[in-house]
Amino acid sequence: MFPVPPSLRRTADEIDGWLELKCPDRALTRISDLLDAPDARHAGLAMRVRALTSLGRHDEAIADIAELRQTEQPDFAKLHDWLDLCEAWCRKRTHDLQTAIRCMEELVARNPKSAIGHYNLGCYLALAGQRDRAIDEVTLACGLTEELREHAREEPDLDGLRNDSRFRDLMQKRRGFR
Q1: What mean pLDDT is reported for the chain?
Q2: 159 has pLDDT over 90
Q3: Taking the model in full, what pTM does it have?
Q4: Which parts of 22-159 fold into alpha helices (H)?
């Protein structure tokens, strides 16, 4: 997502490997090399966000996300989608549903075909008690990516919608029977 100079590529690969192996503590022990290098700082911040969210250190991750939002990258839209998803995920876990909702609203306004954006927005709206909007968003998400219907069937964030006939109808639909 962010460039790393050749001299730090091996370190970045090692950190990424620890993150892939679900060893965020090990990744954090190596991240300072990236954070201290001006031309690798953004890559280090992105990796630290991944590590911190894995460790449940959401407030710290939000601070790094805020710094990353100040960057200009060639693939700016893709970066902002990732930042919106990460921040919303952290905000939900710090009990700031309104900001999580705002993050997802910004994502789907910028990228209306983001199935995961609509899905997560639906989850956060459901948790906030906004049933109608939540059902609309989950419906959009399932229409964009059918596999999300399976996730919605088991998603605890959507428990508040399960007694709604519109949600039950959505969960019963199959590809080709819309």
Answers
A1: 93
A2: yes
A3: 0.88
A4: 24-30, 32-35, 41-54, 58-68, 76-93, 97-110, 115-127, 131-144, 148-154
